[in-house]
Amino acid sequence: MDEALKDSILNALEMVIDPELGIDIVNLGLVYKVDVDDDGLCTVEMTLTSMGCPLGPQIVNQVKTVLADIPEIQDTEVNIVWDPPWDKEMMSRYAKIALGIG
């Protein structure tokens, strides 16, 4: 996958806002890995801020919706993983400032 496509994917994923925190999933550090195969299947490996997050299915649907607008992507598979576990140190500087975290 070329850098331009990866940038397009990450830019699109910045449109997916975690409803609880009001920050996008990229700046929260929830997206661990993105890949697109030769058939246009985009695989997103990500986590959620907590295992019991009731909004997980909503976030997954939003990921699929925003990535559907990228011409190179034919389909999207979202894999929710819990390893490594998410913590606030994974957030970008922007997210930490927005949430008032050191």
TrEMBL record:
Gene3D superfamilies, alphabetized: Fe-S cluster assembly (FSCA)
InterPro entries, alphabetized: Fe-S_Maturation_MIP18, FSCA_dom_sf, MIP18-like
Q: Which residue intervals define the domain MIP18 family-like in the entry?
A: 6-80
Instruction: Tell me which SUPFAM superfamilies the record gives.
Output: Fe-S cluster assembly (FSCA) domain-like (SSF117916)
Entry protein name: Metal-sulfur cluster assembly factor
Native organism: Staphylococcus pettenkoferi
